[in-house]
């Protein structure tokens, strides 16, 4: 008899697991996990500000499920120092306690934030662009790119499952105000990479993004035409813009003042690291109101309409040190983050009531340069690294779709557009969605450094909701609740508030409704009680009732 033939199936290599917790399908709050077998690492740890909630709490990604799944990262890698990439460190990292790798500027910013919260900072490890860090099966190489903050890097992640390029935030700026342009040979040497997990923020914009140098020249040209006091509001973490404004002040004969603690911190750190060596001496805040207006240039926080910012207090006429007068100019040198349009508009109306002249992206679009790549930059970058596939991240679904459209023109596979909570398996250029976890972001209320050592009270709420023919949700029946410790809440007042809130939320699914309702309830309870209870929200949907209403 002939020998039997045994078929041996090829053994599939273990996948690289990509688990985005923030930064996919929305702006801000960037946090991604990568896992190979039982070893996990995290990339970035950002936050966003919920302007639509009372007291504008900070919002971070939901990491509560990681410990139960044994997905706790053993190292955290930071791409750059913007708040939407490092701002949640003080709240999220203590749950992990792992080493943190970042460039000197990002380390300095995190060290300041962690020290304010009473956290140890010995987990911070400074690295230089170009360095490679080993963590278990991961080899992580830092690749310098241009962005609106120095020392920004993409990360090349190498594992047995393939090579993934996590771009972080980047652009191709030929004339950056700080640092050097991107070196094409650095990225051409990587080609081809299996997968790019890439920045989509401006993928729907045709052409090439403007250079920071162009924005600096536009700012100087405008300031030269202003006759009164000039207030410029920008992101405090945009160090290139701060350096440019220092140059503008010198060239136009104005003296610099800083308003806002984060602005003062960034300038101080920039001086320490040598990025702002030529920055002019700052005028004490208490002296700004006594100088002739035509001699003053103020850099202030508040470009996104933050209610506690220096600019907001000026708009209300309640700033302790400075009153705006007719003829003063307020320049918005930052784009409006989606979702912040209404508070920004209210801020501008308040500034106009004080007599200020407003310059912004509507009447002076040259005052800002995006830190993200437009379509021409994506095309150039992909001609360098020759990716076999793309997973678009950062930005909203429309930006991710536009990014996919660009990639397809160059025969780059686009297997899916990730969403927060996805668990994606990657093998070389192949990616598949294994499951989706419904996540509830955490809110953190800034109570002036006050930390309660008492056990958090618990509050469980259950309510029945229906969806009418018009798609709006509404509540019916009683609100059932259970409190395990005293919590001064009025049940009728809470019920009335829910009845007003629920129809305006409008998500399509019950899970999405719960997530939105959870955030609003956290804010409501904190506002009315000053406490942050452990909150459990259960929604029961009466679909039969909804169909017959």
Which features would summarize this protein structure in a list?
eight-stranded mixed sheet, six-stranded mixed sheet, globular, 14 helices, 27% helix, 549 residues, disordered N terminus, alpha/beta
Helix content: 25-40%
Q: Mind describing the biggest β-sheet?
A: 8 strands, mixed
Distance between the termini: 76 Å
Count of helix runs:
14
| General shape | globular
Task: Tally the beta strands.
Answer: 25
Helix-strand makeup class: alpha/beta
Residues in β-strands, percent = 15-25%
Across the major sheet, the strand order is 8-7-6-3-2-1-20-21
Averaged pLDDT: 87
Could you name the ranges where pLDDT drops below 50 across 5 or more consecutive residues? 1-10, 448-454, 544-549
Using only CA atoms, what is the Rg?
A: 25 Å
What this model shows, in words?
- By secondary structure, the protein is α/β, with parallel strands linked by helices.
- The protein contains 14 helices and 25 strands.
- It has helices at 83-86, 89-92, 104-116, 184-188, 212-225, 239-252, 261-272, 310-315, 341-353, 375-385, 397-408, 491-505, 510-529, 543-547, and strands spanning 16-22, 31-36, 39-43, 47-49, 58-60, 76-77, 100-102, 124-126, 132-135, 138-144, 153-159, 162-166, 195-199, 230-233, 255-259, 296-300, 329-332, 357-359, 390-393, 422-427, 430-436, 442-444, 458-467, 473-483, 534-541.
- The strands form five sheets. It has an eight-stranded mixed β-sheet with strand order 8-7-6-3-2-1-20-21, with helices on one face. A six-stranded mixed β-sheet has the order 9-10-11-12-13-19, covered by helices on one side. It has a five-stranded parallel β-sheet with strand order 15-16-14-17-18, sandwiched between helices.
- Helix 9 links the parallel strand 17 and strand 18.
- Helix 5 (212-225) packs parallel to helix 6.
- Mean pLDDT is 87; it is low at 1-10, 448-454 and 544-549.
- It comes from Larsenimonas rhizosphaerae.
- Residues 28-208 form the Metallo-beta-lactamase domain.
